[in-house]
Structure formats: structure tokens, C-alpha cells
Amino acid sequence: MKMKSLLAIILLAMGVTACSTVKKVVYRIDVPQGNYLEQDKIDQLQIGMNQVQVQYLLGTPVLRDVFAENRWDYVFIKREGHNDPIQRTLLVYFDNKGIVTDIKLDDIKNQKVVEKKAQ
């Protein structure tokens, strides 16, 4: 009797621990969300551009905040399979005439903030 219960406990423990590896066996598609923020497009973005030029270069922003009308938010999130998501956030600031005055790129993957400001 003791042998059967010991064997049952061992099999149960092995079965429960095997369930934790099943998660990575199942295929998960890559899920990109938001605006693709390609480095060459970001490099072309310059202080002094107008809103039409920025929209032509980067596309429509993900968010135009009602309380910050002079700021456009471009957010890109990519989740590849079972890996952690990669997020990049680009903030473009305009003056009252619609001219770019400040650019902030928050690259969470590389944990750095790149900033361009008007002189």
C-alpha cells in the first residue's frame, strides 16, 4: 500500500511539473501593434519640420492627446512568440504654428532615451 501511494505521489509530481513546459510548446504568432518605428525614418525626423511632413514620414500618430494638442505620440509594441514585448515610444512636440520643436525617443528595449531639441 505504501509503495502504491508513493508511486502515485511521484507520478503526480512529475505530471504537475510537466505542465509548466507545455506553455512554450504551443506556437504563438508575432503580434505587432501601433506604428512601425524604423530607425531610418526616425533619423530623417528633424526639428523644424511641419506636421504634414511628420505625418508623411511616420504616418498617423497612435495618440493625439486632447490635453496636449502640440504633442503626437507614436507607440510601437512587438510581441514575438513567448518573448517579452518590445516597446518603442516616440514623442514629437510642435509649437503653435505646427513646427517640430522637440523629439523624444524612449527605447525601452535598450533602456535609453534619445532627445532632439530646438536650439
Automatic annotation (TrEMBL):
This is Outer membrane protein assembly factor BamE. Belongs to the BamE family. GO terms for biological process: Gram-negative-bacterium-type cell outer membrane assembly; protein insertion into membrane. Keywords: Cell outer membrane, Lipoprotein, Membrane, Palmitate, Signal. It comes from Haemophilus paraphrohaemolyticus. The gene is bamE. It is a lipid-anchor. It holds the Pfam family BamE. One of its GO terms (molecular function) is protein-macromolecule adaptor activity. GO terms for cellular component: Bam protein complex. Residues 34-103 form the Outer membrane protein assembly factor BamE domain. It is found in: Cell outer membrane. Part of the outer membrane protein assembly complex, which is involved in assembly and insertion of beta-barrel proteins into the outer membrane. Gene3D superfamilies: 3.30.1450.10. InterPro entries: BamE (IPR026592), BamE-like (IPR037873), BamE_dom (IPR007450).
